[in-house]
Amino acid sequence: MSKAPVRTDKTCLNCRHVVENCFCPNCGQENVSVRKNFYHLFVHFFEDLTHYENAFWRTIKNLITKPGSLTSEYLSGKRMSYLAPIRLYIFISFVTFLSINLLPADSDAVTVNMNEQTKVGKIDVETAKKNAHNLVSDLAKDNKIGKKEADSLKNFIASVRKKDDDISVGFFQDDAKTLEEYDEKIKEMSEKEKPSAIEQMFVRKSIELNNRYTGKELQERFFETFKHNLPKVLFIYMPLFAFILWIFESKKKYYYFDHGIFTLHYFSFLLLMLLLEHLLSWFFLITGLEGYTAVEVIYSIIVLGLLFYSFYYFFPAHHRFYKTERVITFFKGIFIFMINCFLIILVLTGMALYTFYNNPLGEII
């Protein structure tokens, strides 16, 4: 409550409703003077900041140490003491993926080193290919080789690539170096031997990209795009996760909204564990401690502990919120966990294929 003087006028400035006490019964706005001095603004700012900070740390503490209790308390009506579930998820998601993009970890440092090596290798190969192409052209001009032989040599030179430079997509791969060569192979196949239309589509895309970019360039941009789209995928997948919970739990006791709140808290916890693991990796990288065996063992133990707790967390959270017997919770949780693992793999695979085919090197979608 603000310490500013209460207005003598009993008409709410926000909704024009009659205000008998300090707060409007219609919209909740405090009936105080609009014009405040700097002291009141300063104090009000720190009151809001302190309230938000206390609510934030209280929410994080309960989220980590008391699986499922945050959802139970929120749905029981205790909402002012904690951050709203959607606000909590958006905040943790933003901080997590911002940290992943801004703070380098071991894998990022290795990628940078590999990219530098790839650039040098690419320059050498491209220079050699250009020189060889010019040499063949000169030989053809001097009539030392025929036009047919010159064309064959030029096609061979164009197909030469740096070792391990090509990229394939799972089973969608072929030894053809150009689209024309691949089309000729398809024409020579019988109807039974021909690959499916989807496989042909991805093979053609793979050949096209291999002829334009190095494998390292393609992989780097692909994973960058994939990483930027991951928060969207998780956000889209949450309603499906809540729907699976709705299928397995009582329809009379719990609404879909209740499962949605549980899902928001659970996914917020998973993102928080991901953030802790990344910050830990970043800390070991910048301090130079990753080279010490004892430190690496400690790091591995901590990471394994985070992974185990992330897996274990669902079961006490499920038991505490849905109030089922522990044995039933365990077997039901295992089944729900398996279904969601299968579905999330399908979603991530579909996202990976979509990213590769539509936008592996374009702008982040």
TrEMBL record:
<protein>
    <recommendedName>
        <fullName>DUF3667 domain-containing protein</fullName>
    </recommendedName>
</protein>
<feature type="transmembrane region" description="Helical">
    <location>
        <begin position="260"/>
        <end position="285"/>
    </location>
</feature>
<dbReference type="InterPro" id="IPR022134">
    <property type="entry name" value="DUF3667"/>
</dbReference>
<keyword id="KW-0812">Transmembrane</keyword>
<feature type="transmembrane region" description="Helical">
    <location>
        <begin position="297"/>
        <end position="315"/>
    </location>
</feature>
<feature type="transmembrane region" description="Helical">
    <location>
        <begin position="86"/>
        <end position="105"/>
    </location>
</feature>
<keyword id="KW-0472">Membrane</keyword>
<dbReference type="Pfam" id="PF12412">
    <property type="entry name" value="DUF3667"/>
</dbReference>
<feature type="transmembrane region" description="Helical">
    <location>
        <begin position="335"/>
        <end position="357"/>
    </location>
</feature>
<keyword id="KW-1133">Transmembrane helix</keyword>
<feature type="transmembrane region" description="Helical">
    <location>
        <begin position="230"/>
        <end position="248"/>
    </location>
</feature>
